[in-house]
Every structure is written in structure tokens, then in C-alpha cells.
Amino acid sequence: MGDTRLPLLAEAPTTYEPLLSWVEEVAELTKPERIHWVNGSEAEYRTLTDELVAAGTLTRLNPELFPNSFAAFSDPADVARVEEQTFICSENERDAGFTNNWMEPATMKGKLAELFDGSMRGRTMYVIPFVMGHLDAEDPKFGVEITDSAYVVASMRVMARIGTDVLERIEETGAFFVPALHSVGAPLEPGQEDVPWPCNPEKWIVHFPEERSIVSYGSGYGGNALLGKKCYALRIASVMARDEGWLAEHMLILKLTSPENRVYNVAAAFPSACGKTNLALLDPTIEGWKVETLGDDITWMRFGKDGELRAVNPEAGLFGVAPGTGWGTNPNAMRAIAKGNSIFTNVALTDDGGVWWEGMTEEVPTHLTDWQGNDWTPDSGRPAAHPNSRFCTPIDQIDMLAPEYFAPEGVEVHAILFGGRRKTTIPLVTQSRDWAQGIFYGATLSSETTAAAAGAVGVVRRDPMAMLPFIGYDAGDYLNHWVRVSAKANPARLPKIFLVNWFRRTREGGFAWPGFGDNARVLKWAIERIEGAADAVETPIGFVPTPASLDLTGLGMTEDEVQEAVRFDAEEWKAEVPGLEEWFERFGGSLPESLTAELESLKSRLA
Ligand code: GTP
Ligand code: SPV
Ligand code: MN
């Protein structure tokens, strides 16, 4: 360490020059009161959460109900990812593509330098060394997040592998780390009292893909602030993956074991708040089929030496949508949560010091404190928990966690599902004729928007591979990358691809399919298709089940009712085509030819 180091760095637990000089540069700009190097220990977590309780950011829950667990309530204007303010600042605008906001890197850096000047005044600057994926991976993906939010530190400890071990490994191996800078943008003047959830009305979530760096300003929430998650493990990782020949995807991954003990790993890409966590923790309603969890939000995949597709989950926790997660719909998540060690954000509080959200229990409590701190009763006429309220829970608290979660080499993927939230048109499940048509399913995936991002809810938008807000480069190049990478596959071991929709409605307006644990019936059909055992009807969009080919044991639905969920509707699909054409036109020529060919052949089959 040079003599000229900032005195604030005196207690740095490292001599790693690339890290020290970055931390120093940030400290000089942001002017924090002190620097805390996060070691990731139990004791540190206790101190941090005690401080957050004292500051009013966290409410300690009743330990008999939720041990070592806390509730946080955000500023009402800081409740979700802000896609409008999310930028990919590639050197060339063309490389950000039409799905991303872009600004010239130098201009953006100038703007950020102004915003970060003194932005940590009066606060502690935390330095969090982290690794996404395994520390013992062949090529571990390191990052260091600098943040002035202790809530972010506590949440990152759940969501990623952080602390001393990681720092030592970075230093020992001289590894590159992604510098990820975060500030809530709420400096404190001397004597100024803090608020429970500091943030700034102005928010910027910025990525510099060529230098692989992240800068986030103004928000303390989820994907805006826990920078290992969407910013690194998807946006920056997708760029690394493009350059290094792998795939970083917004997918869950689960291990399915058949009654005959055959194992299939299934990855599934659904947009935000469209059912990944629920499927990953599925409790099958059919006998003999077992599901184990590998991941619930992000999957990194590469083709192995035998041409098989291998997948790992780079995360260490769940940041799950609370509403709709209940003892009836997702008992496995509820059991994991009940073990404690969780941070809840924007849920409601029960009078006995527990948490509640819509759908947690069938019986609705008679009195709650809602997520905004107001009294709430069932006839208040508004939800008690915010629709994007979340539970943040260590993944190893899931009883059904697959042992392979801990294997750095990951698992082979046998099937990929693409799915969205569509009231009409998309059948419960469709199997693609081949890999190319499967990529077409992914490229044209559509869904109604949800509360996971700020903005209107319920608007149908195209969401390629469920990655629309997360592709760190040009969307056409991204689809080309899928095509190119899969050319490395052993064709016999290419996963089979299915399009699913748990959200189709009946004419009466209810869900056409009960979903949740009953989705195991769809997984079973998919596996039986792979094994060549299940029946299907060939339609212009691919193979859909006959009602009789699905295991309906104990479902309590008639074949006619099931038919409404699985049917292919030619009229609805003809009405879909102009939207598909418009979507493809937006790529302005960067789309793989194979996809244009798929659309043409779909049109001729529909005609
Ligand atoms: P992100 O964490 O935002 O990426 O969301 P996710 O894809 O993991 O979604 P999640 O599993 O948390 O589900 C989001 C919402 O959809 C919850 O309110 C669920 O209750 C609901 N949901 C999930 N699966 C089903 C299903 O099979 N049927 C129905 N009707 N709703 C479902
Ligand atoms: C999503 O929006 O897809 C999430 C939540 O998983 S967040 O971490 O906020 O991105
Ligand atoms: Mn997600």
C-alpha cells in the first residue's frame, strides 16, 4: 500500500492493488464517513441487522414465528426494477440494440460522477467481495459491490457467496472482478436525521458492457441494488457469455425424477413474476414424481465436452415474489421461509409480529399493518402487501434442494420450457418440432407485464427468452448467439423445447388450468414426449397434448375443461401473426435467418 492512500483505507484487509485503487477512487468521490469491508460472518450480520433495526429500516419479526428474520418497508416510490432508467452504455449505440436504453459512455460517466460526488456523505461505505456461481468453478465470476446501504449488504449475504473467502481468492489468483458501485443517493448533512429507507427520486441503473462494470444510483430495491443479481448475473454475464461461448439466462432449473428413477433436469424461462420460483419449488400432485430445486431465477449454461448442455445456478438465495406464495400453492417455499434467516420487503405485519401477504393463508387476518404502515382490515379495499413484495431466503433452507446445486460442474439440461402470462392464444403446453422452432418460441415469447417492474401492469409485450430487460447487448445478436452456441451441441443431446402458459383464461374469466403443483402433470407429459410415450396432436405451432395424454388422476377436471386449457385455436393464432411480424421488423436485420424462416413456415401452416 502506498503512503499516499486515503486514511479511510487504513484498515483495508487486502493489498490487492486493483481493488484498493478502485475503492480509494470511489471513496474520494463519494466522501463516506467510514469504510466497512464486509467479511460475511454471522457476527457481522448480527451487528448490521441490529443497526438496521435501530435505524428503523428493519423490523425484527417474532422469533417464535420467524427466527432471525426481518421486515423492511421501502419508500413507496422504490418498489420495483426501473426499466426506463436502466442503461446499457456500450461504446456503440448499435451494440445496445433496440431493447435497451443507451447513452454514450463518456456522457453517462460525467452524469454519474456528478451524482456520486459526495453521495455517501455521513454514511458508511460497504465493500462486498462476492462471487456469482461457485468459488471452485473453473473460471469463477467475481465481483465487488460498493454500497452505502446496509440493507443491500444484508440481502447480498443471502443472495450470493460473499466475504473474506472470496476476497482472498480474488487476491490469490489476481482475478478480474466486476466493479459494481451502488449508492442510494441520500447523503446526510451533519446532524441530519436519517429516514428508514433512504433513496433518491432520480434513479440510474447503468452497465458498461465492454469494461464489465456496473453503476447504480438512487434505488435501494431488489434488482436495482443487489448488483450481483440482474445487473451482473444477467446483463453483464450475458455479454461475457457472448464473448466466451456460453449462456446467461433468466431461468429456473429443477431436477425431476420419474417413478422409474429416471432423472431429467428442466430449465424454464418465464418473465418476472410469471412462475419461476413456484415451478422450481413445485410440490407434485401426482404420485411417484419427485421434484428437487436447483435454481429459481438465473441459470448459466454451457455446452460440455460431450456436447451436452450443462447448467449451474449462480445465486445463493431466493428473492421471491411473496403474494401468491402460500401453504396451498407453494408449501416448499413456505417451509424454507419458516426456518427464518429471511428479509421480507414490503409485506404486511401481523399483530403477533409475523408477516402476511395475499395468498399466504386461506384465512385472511382480521387486522394487519400494511406495507405502508397503515392499519388494514379485509374491507380496506387495497392489498396489505405490495404486489411486488418479496422474501429473501437462503437457498439451502429449501428441503428439496438438489444435491447437485453444490456441484461446480452443474447438471445436464434435458428440457427447456419457455412460458409467459397470456390470457388467450398460447396453449397450456406445446412441444416444438425441433430445436429451431424451440428457439422461435423463445424469440417470440410474450407476456402481460407484472408488478416486478415499475409501469403499467397487464400489457402484452414480447419478451425474448424472458430476457427483455436483461439482455446486455443487441437482442438480435443475442438470438444469433443462441443459434451459434447450440451448433456446438451433440444433436442427440439437445434439450427438447416446450412453450407453456399457466395463465390462460376460460370464457368465464377464471384460470383454465389450476397451475402450481398440478404443473407436474405438464412436466410428466413433457418427459413422456421425450421418451416417446405420450400422445399429442400436431398443430401449426407444434405438438399439443390430447386431454387423455395428460395424467389427470385426482385433478377433478373434465376432459372438456382440460381441452379448453390445451386447445390450439387457429383464429387466435392468425390474429397473433401481425404482432409477430411487427416484432421481427424491430430487429432491423440483426435477426437470425432461421427465425425469419420459422415465421414464414408458421404463416404457411396457418393459412
Ligand atoms: P421473479 O422473481 O420476478 O422473476 O418471478 P417468478 O418468475 O419467480 O414468479 P413467481 O414464481 O414468484 O410467481 C409470480 C406470481 O405468479 C405469484 O403470485 C404466483 O402465485 C403466481 N403463479 C406462479 N405459478 C402459477 C401458476 O401455475 N398458476 C397461477 N395461476 N399463478 C401462478
Ligand atoms: C425479477 O424482476 O425478475 C426479479 C426481481 O427476480 S429483481 O431482483 O428485482 O429483479
Ligand atoms: Mn427474476
Task: Please give a structural write-up.
The active site is at residue 274. This is Phosphoenolpyruvate carboxykinase [GTP]. Its cofactor is Mn(2+). Pathway: Carbohydrate biosynthesis; gluconeogenesis. Residues 22-242 form the Phosphoenolpyruvate carboxykinase GTP-utilising N-terminal domain. By secondary structure, the protein is an alpha+beta fold. Helix content is 27%, strand content 21%. It contains 15 helices and 31 strands. Strands 1, 4, 5, 6, 7, 8, 9 and 10 form an eight-stranded mixed β-sheet that branches. It has a six-stranded mixed β-sheet with strand order 14-12-13-25-29-26, with helices on both faces. The longest helix has 17 residues, at 228-244. The radius of gyration is 24 Å and the shape is globular. The mean pLDDT is 97. The structure holds guanosine-5'-triphosphate, sulfopyruvate and manganese (II) ion (MN). Guanosine-5'-triphosphate is lined by residues 270, 272-278, 296-297, 320-321, 323-324, 329, 452, 502-503, 511, 515-516, 519.
Mind sketching the topology for me?
Elements: H1 17-30, E1 34-37, H2 42-54, E2 58-60, E3 70-72, E4 86-88, H3 105-116, E5 124-132, E6 141-147, H4 150-159, E7 161-162, H5 164-173, E8 177-183, E9 204-208, E10 213-217, H6 222-225, H7 228-244, E11 247-249, E12 251-257, E13 263-269, H8 276-280, E14 290-295, E15 299-303, E16 309-312, E17 317-321, H9 331-338, E18 343-345, E19 348-350, E20 355-356, E21 368-369, E22 375-376, E23 390-394, E24 411-412, E25 415-419, E26 429-431, H10 435-443, E27 446-448, E28 460-462, H11 475-486, E29 496-500, H12 519-530, E30 537-539, E31 542-544, H13 559-566, H14 570-585, H15 593-606
Parallel strand pairs: 1-5, 3-18, 4-9, 6-8, 8-10, 13-25, 25-29
Antiparallel strand pairs: 2-3, 5-6, 5-7, 9-10, 11-15, 12-13, 12-14, 15-16, 16-24, 17-23, 18-23, 19-20, 19-21, 21-22, 26-29, 27-28, 30-31
Helix pairs in contact: 2-4, 10-15, 14-15
The site of sulfopyruvate has 9 residues, from helix 6 and helix 7.
